[in-house]
Amino acid sequence: MRLAAPAKVLLQRFAFLFLILAAFGIMLLSKSETIVVEKVSTVVVDVFAPIMDVLSRPAAAANDAVKTVRGLADLRDENIRLARENERLLVWQEAARRLASQNQALQSLLDFKPSPNSQSIATRVIADSGGAFVRSIVVNAGDRDGVRKGQAAVSGAGLAGRVTTAGYRSARILLITDINSRVPVLIESSRDRAILSGDNSGMPRLTFLPANASIKAGDRVITSGHGGVFPPGLQIGQVVPSGDGVMRVKPNVSFDQLEFVRLVDFAAVSPIVPQGEPAVPPKNAASR
Fold it and tell me: Domain containing 49: what range?
């Protein structure tokens, strides 16, 4: 104990000097014995390499687990984002399809070019076959839009019908296939006149044909302009043969796919009467 106290005091006083001398000695040893130091370092690394490998595996596994969890979280967020984006794209796709269909239907109206003296309005079909009529449609335009009773309803393919009633916001159109429809027509090739009479079927009949009428299948049928309701020259359809001996007309207008119609007011257009023939006064019975 007597020797330990002075030695402890001496060690405390000269510890810093001893450390400096030791470091200096190690530096000299590393400079003089480089090969020995490298060998010792290599041996130490070889000894501790398996231990470090074993110790590093749990850390690597934990790191991979953390990355996997983060990846799953990112995938979940990405899946939610893609699902929402897919919903938005489906909505836009449906809107694009609807607009494309409407655009195609509206473009078909451009095939019909009304007279410069006539007034017209394009409207949408909102209902089919209701009320007292069997073959009729309802459109979303009425008195406030200038729709009047008796106006012709046409599409790009030809005549569809005429307005029978007009409300403030809507109007009902009697189709040419309805049993109450009567349209004065003309066979384009033979110039024979007749009345197109609807019978609630898909193909109305040709009635009041002349006895010597020369009509064959495929002849085009147009409005004659008599009666003052429709102007002459509106396309209606083609003559088709029937098994009951009655001449029928297949309309150009596809009523099952009718989405838009143009309501045309031909009141300002005078019917064209062939030269040398007397004008025919309006007949209510021919255009009921």
Answer: 28-109
